Amino acid sequence: MTAITISEVYPVKPEAVWNAITQVKQMRQWFFENIPAFEPEVGFTTQFEVDAGERQFIHKWKIVEVIPGQLIKYEWSYEHYQGMGYVTFNIEQEAGQTTLTLISEGLDSFKPKVPEFTTESCQAGWNYFIKERLQAYLSGSL
Whole-angstrom Cα distance, residue 15 to residue 34? Predict the structure, then answer.
């Protein structure tokens, strides 16, 4: 199973990163603007549509692990596609900065294969969200 790992350092406190990845109003600013609801609680589920141009994907998330302020993990699947992925956000504080490490697992399980399910596409998407969008949001430039 191929895992994608992305890490980024932010010049903010861990609480700011935690809030950005778990509070729906903040998530809508840098992640997906149409997330209907989100609660960092095991068992919470949500779903929403993402328009990828040629295809629309109904994202289905279910929270499977939470360590408040440190880690959140959720199942990630798509309506009308076989497969199940897992996305983990892990927060660590280092010398007045915060490192967020994202791990995306299970990409190989999605079928049928479409361009959006390639490792390269997924890596580029997570780089965009973690290194560009979230970085800009936390720095106040988004």
Answer: 23
Q: Which two tokens stand for residue 122?
A: 């997924």
Res 21: pLDDT: 98
Strand, helix or coil at 107? helix
The two tokens of residue 98 are: 């915060």
Closest by CA to 51, choosing from 32, 30, 26, is 32
Q: Structure pTM?
A: 0.92
Q: Which residues of the chain have pLDDT under 70?
A: 1, 142
- Are the C-beta atoms of 46 and 36 separated by less than 8 Å? yes
Collapsed DSSP state (helix, strand, coil) of residue 23: coil
Length of the chain, in residues: 142
How far apart are the C-alpha atoms of 138 and 10, rounded to whole Å? Answer: 7
- Looking up tokens 């729906």, which residue turns up? 24
Strand 97-105 vs strand 45-51: parallel, antiparallel, or unpaired? Answer: unpaired
Q: What is the rounded distance in angstroms from the CA atom of residue 27 to the CA atom of residue 134?
A: 9
